[in-house]
Amino acid sequence: MTQSNQESREPSHDELESLFVNNVALERIEAYLNRFNPIKIMKMERMEIRHSAILAWLLDPAETHGLGDRFLKAFLGEAFRGHSDKIPTALGISQSDFRDAEVRCEWRKIDIFILSPTNKWAFIIENKFDSKQHKGQLEKYFKDIKAHFKEQKELKIRGVFLTLSDETPEDPQNEYAPIKYESVCEILELILKHHSQLCSPEVTVFLNHYLEILKDATGMSEKLNDMEELAKRLYREHKKVLDFIVEHGASTDFAIAARMHFGDNPDRFAKAVIGKNEYVFCGLGTNIVSFLPMSWYEAFGKQEYKWRGCENWWAEYPLITWLRLTSDKEESKGWLKLVAEVGPSDFRAELIAAIKEIGTKENLNNINFQKGADSEGRKYSKFFKSNSIRIDDIHNSDEIFKKMTDLMNNFQSEFNSIAKVLPQFLERGEH
Predict the structure, then answer these.
(1) Which strand (E) or helix (H) includes residue 123?
(2) Tens digit of pLDDT for each residue in 357-367?
(3) What is the CA radius of gyration of the chain?
(4) Which of 76, 103, 177, 354 has the most CB atoms within 10 Å of its CB?
């Protein structure tokens, strides 16, 4: 890069002042990032064992939350909804009294175990917040509990497989019902809305803190979505300053790996070949890089169209994909996740329907929208599952680089199939 080009990229004094002096948007984002949450302060938000402890407390009718068996019945009822082939059913659970339930955490290596002697029911809850299941793990727990209670012939044993990401339980006998943390969010929010009077003020405050943690982790936080939208608008308005800061201040191994793919200082929509496909670059941060498959970019008319509703969203297209690196409790290890999301266009419901249809037609099981994704009022809808890959050393840019390629290659079928349905929406853009 020549000296004159380098100087043209450097922000002026006025541009720096515009971003950092009395900038209301920047102050709002800073306040959001610095909000008080004791669970985050203690660095417990990604610790699976802590989530198990909190959930075991909530599930125990005799505990100090004051909710009795309301959370327990709501959780189990949601897990077994649509699984009426075995006892107990969701309807049976909703009509039963669980006040005698015994809840044990980390008993016989099981995350949460629930026994209701009166109903003669037992539940094994396997909690996967960041980790993945081990081969034969679920079946082993079930056989162990069955052997332990072999004298109680009438006892019905069921399993619950709770996950943050989409993961199918490896359960040959179909004894485990899957449920996601999104459902825990919905249940907890509903209980706080209608039954908070049963809780002490201290419990209510704690539950709201925990709900905030879960919403951030699941992408269900309206505050987080609002802040992301505000951050994107801030980036549009101060792109030169922020690009300069990222270029000279962000030297994470993730950023290094992303630059190995997209180039040292790529322009927006610069082309890059990664693995088996071609992509266009959208943006880079310390632990996130956004892009579009070239087929999506071309299907949406490249840069010749504007999309109503997307003006302040990512790359201003109705769809976006990104890679994000998160570290786990061991800090040196983590997960690389590939996310695809439908944004706030004025035809998002039709776009979601088209993606669902092609996913079903071509048996693409990794396309899976959350319940109510196309509901009025929703703006953002992620739809990839089984989309994470383990990183053994988050400080190893070569490992991150390779696994970026591996993860993107794993979703070539999804990228290519979705591209087939996008041209029909070109007429919805403004040329």
Answers:
(1) strand 121-128
(2) 999 999 999 99
(3) 24
(4) 76
